[in-house]
Design a protein that fits this description.
The complex is a heterodimer. Chain A is mainly alpha-helical. Chain A is built from 13 helices and 2 strands. The radius of gyration of chain A is 20 Å and the shape is globular. The termini of chain A are far apart. The relative contact order of chain A is 0.21. Chain B is built from 10 helices and 17 strands. The longest helix of chain B has 23 residues. Chain B starts with 7 loop residues before the first helix and ends with a strand. Classes of the chains: A mainly alpha, B alpha/beta. Chains A and B meet through helix 1, helix 5, helix 11 and helix 12 of A and strand 7, helix 7 and helix 8 of B. Chain A: One of its GO terms (cellular component) is plasma membrane.
Chain lengths: ~300, ~375
C-alpha cells in the first residue's frame, strides 16, 4: 500500500480536523446563540462544557452506554443553565458576573467529582464511515463522522428555522430585542430567559460529552483548554446566526488542524505561528465583515454588551 | 472596660500565640520527623508524568516518620511560589519536590534563597553549580535510554519504515528522547525515519489527538510521545491501528495487544533514597542522576506484538546499557540540517552533561525545533 499522498495531506487534514474538532465549538455556540437571542449572556458555558465532559464520561463508564452519558451531560448542562437563569432573574444581578462564577463552579465541581474517572476507559460514541469509497486510509480516517456532529448540523438548521418561522422563535426574539414589547405582548421575559439559558446549557453539556466520549475521547482536567470560551466568542463572529455558527465552528476546527498537518507534511518551521491560525483568522474575518455604521450588527437589542 | 487595640492582655495573648506557632515546626524537627512537599503541574493520575511522581510520593509516605503534603494542578507561574510558601509556612515542609520543568526559573530561584535552611529538589536538568543556590538541586534520569529501547521494538514493528513522535516542547530532554527513539530504530534498520510533531504545551488533549492523527496520515505506524499525559496519544494511535511505545508510566492496559513496551520512571526508589538521606542527617547531592542500572527508569514488560528477533535485540541492548557508559548519540552522526554532531569514534555517554543542552534533531528525524 502506498500511503504517501504528499501535500494533499494538508487539505485532507484540514477537512478531517474540521469534522473531528468542530462539534464542541458548534454545540456551545448554538447554546449561546439561543441564550443570547433571548437577551442574556451566559459566560459560564466553559464550565458547563467541562462538567458535561466529566458527567458524560462518568455515566458512560458506569452504565456502559455512551448515549446515557450524552443524556446525563445534557441534563447536567441544563441544570447549570437553569441555575444561571434563575439567579439572573433576581433583581440587580449581573449576568456576566454570574456567568464567570458559574464557569469556575462548573470546572471546580467537574475536577472534584471527576477524580476517579481519569484512569478508567469509557465506551466511545459510534461513528459513521463516509470514506468507504476510497482506498486511502487517510481519506477513510478523515471522513469518520460522529453521529453527534450530524445531530449538531441538524440542530443548527433547526434553530435557524425556529427563529425564523415559529411562534417560539418569535417569542425568544421579541424578549431579546425589547423587554417592553414582550411585556406588552403578555410574555414574562424572566421565564423566557430562564428556559433559553437552560436549553443553551444543555447544548454545551452535549458538546462536553463529545469531547470526552469521542474526540479526543477521554476525561482529564485539561480536556477543554478554553474551547468553551472560544465558542462563546464565536457567537459574535457568527452574528447570532445558527447557520453561521456551523461555518464558524468548521473553520475553527479546520484551522486548528493546520499546525499538526503542516508539521506532518514536513513544513515544520514556525509551528507556534500556525497554532495561532484560528485566532488570526478570527481577527481577519471580524475586520473584513465589520460594519462602518453599526458596531454589533445582528446583536439582540437587550443584550447587556449592546446596551 | 473599653478595649484599646494595644491592651496589655491582648498583646500578651497575641505574642503567646505567635511564639507557639513559631515553635511548632521546631518541635516537629526535634522528634526526627520530616515533612516533604510534592508539587505537580497536572493531575496525579494522568497515566503519565505526574502519576509517575505521585507513585514515588506514595512510596515516601510509607516511610516511618515522614509526612507528605501534595498539591496538584499548580501552574508554572507565581502559583507555584505560593504553593511552596504555604507548604513551608503552614505545613512545616523542609524538603520540597517541585516536579515540573518550568518551576525552576524563576520560581525556585525566588523562594530558595529566602529559605536557606530548607531543601528544594527540582526534577529536570537546570541546576548549575556556582550559578544557582546551593540549597537547591536537580535530579533526573537517563530516560533517553528507555526511548532508545522503545526505538528498537519500533524498528522491528514498523512496516512503512516511518515512526512517529508527539512532542510537547523542544527542550533538551524532549529532543534527546526523540533522537534516541530514532537511533534505536535505526540500529535495526538504517532507512527508518521519525516524524515529530510539537504541540507546544505539556497537556493539550485535542492537539495531541490531532497530532497523532496527522502522524497516522503521514504513514507512521508506530507512535510514542513526550507529553504529560500519554493516554490520549495512546488511545488515538490505537484507534488508527498504530503500534504503541509508552512513556512516563505503563500504558499497556489501554491497548495490550499492540503496546510494544514503554520507557517508565521509577521515582519510588529515587525519592526514598533522597528522603532517607535527609532523615539520617545527610545532605542530598545537588546533582542526582541515574539510568536503568541505578533503578531510576524501567521498561514496561514487552507486549505480545514484539517478535522474538526484536526481543533478543532488546534484551541484549538492555544488558549493554545496564553495564553503564552506553552511548546512543555517537559518531559519525549529523543533525537533520547537515551539521556534524559527532565525528567517527566520538561518543556521548548517557551521563554526559553535554546531552542536557541538546538543541538539535538528528538526521532521519523529520521536524524542526522552532
Amino acid at each position: 500500500m502506498d500511503s504517501d499522498i504528499g501535500l494533499w495531506a494538508i487539505p485532507l487534514a484540514i477537512l478531517g480536523g474540521a469534522i473531528r474538532v468542530s462539534p464542541p465549538f458548534l454545540f456551545v455556540s448554538l447554546g449561546e446563540v439561543l441564550t443570547e437571542r433571548s437577551g442574556r449572556i451566559n459566560l459560564g458555558l466553559e464550565g458547563t462544557l467541562v462538567f458535561g465532559a466529566m458527567s458524560g464520561y462518568a455515566l458512560a463508564y458506569q452504565t456502559g452506554s455512551p448515549w446515557v452519558g450524552v443524556l446525563a451531560a445534557a441534563v447536567a448542562g441544563s441544570l447549570f443553565g437553569l441555575v444561571h437563569g434563575l439567579l439572573c432573574s433576581l433583581p440587580r444581578v449581573n449576568d456576566i458576573a454570574i456567568g464567570i462564577a458559574m464557569m469556575l463552579l462548573g470546572m471546580g465541581l467537574a475536577f472534584f467529582f471527576g477524580k476517579p474517572y481519569i484512569q478508567p476507559v469509557a465506551p466511545d460514541l459510534p461513528a459513521i464511515s463516509f470514506g468507504w469509497w476510497s482506498e486511502l486510509q487517510q481519506v477513510q480516517a478523515a471522513l469518520r463522522v460522529n453521529v453527534l456532529f450530524l445531530i449538531g448540523i441538524a440542530a443548527a438548521i433547526g434553530l435557524w428555522w425556529m427563529f425564523r418561522a415559529t411562534r417560539l422563535g418569535l417569542i425568544i426574539r421579541v424578549v431579546g430585542d425589547s423587554s417592553d414589547a414582550a411585556c406588552a405582548m403578555g410574555i414574562r421575559p424572566s421565564v423566557v430567559h430562564t428556559f433559553a439559558t437552560a436549553a443553551g446549557g444543555a447544548f454545551a453539556g452535549v458538546g462536553g460529552a463529545y469531547l470526552s466520549l469521542f474526540y479526543p475521547g477521554s476525561w482529564n482536567e485539561g480536556i477543554s483548554s478554553g474551547q468553551g470560551l472560544m465558542a462563546v466568542a464565536l457567537v459574535i463572529f457568527a452574528r447570532w446566526n445558527p447557520i453561521a455558527c456551523l461555518w464558524a465552528a468548521l473553520i475553527f476546527g479546520g484551522a486548528g488542524a493546520l499546525g499538526p498537518a503542516l508539521q506532518s507534511a514536513g513544513i515544520s518551521q514556525g509551528y507556534y505561528l500556525f497554532y495561532a491560525a484560528p485566532y488570526v483568522l478570527t481577527l481577519g474575518v471580524l475586520i473584513a465583515t465589520s460594519s462602518p455604521t453599526r458596531a454589533v450588527t445582528g446583536a439582540p437589542g437587550e443584550l447587556s454588551i449592546t446596551k | 472596660m473599653t478595649s484599646t487595640p494595644f491592651s496589655r492582655r491582648g498583646f500578651l495573648k497575641t505574642s503567646a500565640a505567635l511564639a507557639g506557632a513559631a515553635a511548632l515546626p521546631k518541635a516537629a524537627f526535634a522528634a526526627g520527623d520530616l515533612t516533604v512537599g510534592f508539587i505537580y503541574v497536572g493531575p496525579k493520575d494522568d497515566y503519565g508524568y505526574n502519576q509517575a511522581h505521585a507513585e514515588g510520593a506514595g512510596a515516601v509516605k510509607a516511610l516511618a516518620g515522614v509526612t507528605v503534603v501534595e498539591e496538584e494542578n499548580v501552574a508554572e507561574t507565581i502559583d507555584v511560589q505560593k504553593s511552596m510558601e504555604s507548604m513551608i509556612n503552614f505545613d512545616g515542609a523542609t524538603l520540597l519536590f517541585p516536579t515540573s520543568f518550568g518551576y525552576f526559573d524563576p520560581h525556585i530561584l525566588e523562594v530558595a534563597p529566602k529559605n536557606p535552611d530548607l531543601r528544594f529538589q527540582h526534577c529536570g536538568g537546570l541546576w548549575q553549580d556556582g550559578v544557582h543556590p546551593t540549597n537547591a538541586g536537580s535530579y533526573f534520569g537517563y530516560i533517553g535510554m528507555g526511548q532508545y529501547l522503545n526505538g528498537i521494538t519500533a524498528g522491528y514493528a514498523t512496516k512503512t519504515k516511518k515512526i512517529g513522535f508527539v512532542a510537547a516542547k523542544p527542550i533538551p530532554q524532549v529532543l534527546l528522547n526523540i533522537n534516541s527513539f530514532l537511533l534505536g530504530a535505526r540500529s535495526v534498520d538504517s532507512e527508518i525515519t521519525c516524524q515529530v510533531i510539537f504541540t507546544g504545551e505539556w497537556s493539550l488533549a485535542v492537539k495531541e489527538a490531532e497530532a497523532t492523527n496527522a502522524l497516522a496520515d503521514a504513514g507512521c505506524d508506530v507512535v510514542t510521545c513526550h507529553v504529560d499525559g500519554p493516554k490520549v496519544v495512546m488511545e488515538t494511535g490505537a484507534a488508527r491501528g498504530m503500534y504503541l511505545n509508552g512513556y512516563h508510566a505503563n500504558q499497556s492496559s489501554l491497548a495490550p495487544e499492540i503496546y510494544l513496551t514503554g520507557a517508565e520512571w521509577n521515582w519510588a526508589k529515587v525519592y526514598e533514597d533522597m528522603v532517607k538521606t535527609t532523615m539520617d542527617g545527610g545532605t542530598i547531592p545537588n546533582f542526582v542522576r541515574g539510568g536503568l542500572a541505578e533503578g531510576f527508569i524501567k521498561m514496561s514488560p514487552l507486549g505480545p506484538a514484539v517478535s522474538d528477533e526484536a526481543r533478543n535485540k532488546f534484551e541484549a541492548t538492555k544488558a549493554e546499557i545496564m553495564k553503564g557508559g552506553f552511548a546512543a548519540i555517537k559518531g559519525p552522526l549529523k543533525d537533520n540540517k547537515g551539521n556534524v554532531i559527532a565525528t567517527e569514534g566520538q561518543a556521548f555517554e548517557e551521563s554526559d552533561v553535554a546531552l542536557e543542552s541538546m538543541d538539535y534533531l538528528v538526521e532521519g528525524v523529520i521536524g524542526a525545533t522552532s
